[in-house]
Amino acid sequence: MPITRARKEEQVAELSERFGRAQSAVFVDYTGLSVFQMRTIRRALRAEGCDFQVAKNTLIRIALDATGRKLVDGAGAAHDSLTEGVTAVAFGYDNPAAAAKVLLDLKKDLDALKFKGGFFGDNPVSGDAGVQKIANMRTKEDALRDVVRILKGGPSRLRMLLGAAPQKIITLKTLLEQESEQDAA
Question: What CA–CA distance (Å, rounded) separates 84 from 45?
């Protein structure tokens, strides 16, 4: 039975909402996966706070347009392969790398799982290398932790430099006095 126009509009709205909330999205070709394997993927992603949705490519393209995401990166390279063939999308919300990491881990056991690429923010990436880039992205908490570490380390370094400055001035003065004495002699 064909999908009604109303159901397609619901799916586009759902996809648009997910793309709007997601910090990352990973597109996969699920050809050859059993229902049990698809259930395993869904459960693993859900455990990490991610969603997994199978959708028609046309509906995905409409939802991407609705959220302002383009299948062309900043360098002008087209990533149309993301919406070719059978497509499922894994959405990463709080941790942008979570969906990609889960899928990369599952791919070790599921040879039929093929990566098409994905989005990190509004930037599209293609293939296994693109998904690996998404998986290597740092979380917001990691970045904030680094900022705090830098800010905490700054005052102690400044104190050390300021404490060393008078000693260096005295040493420099002594060296200059010794040099002037040698020139006078």
Answer: 23
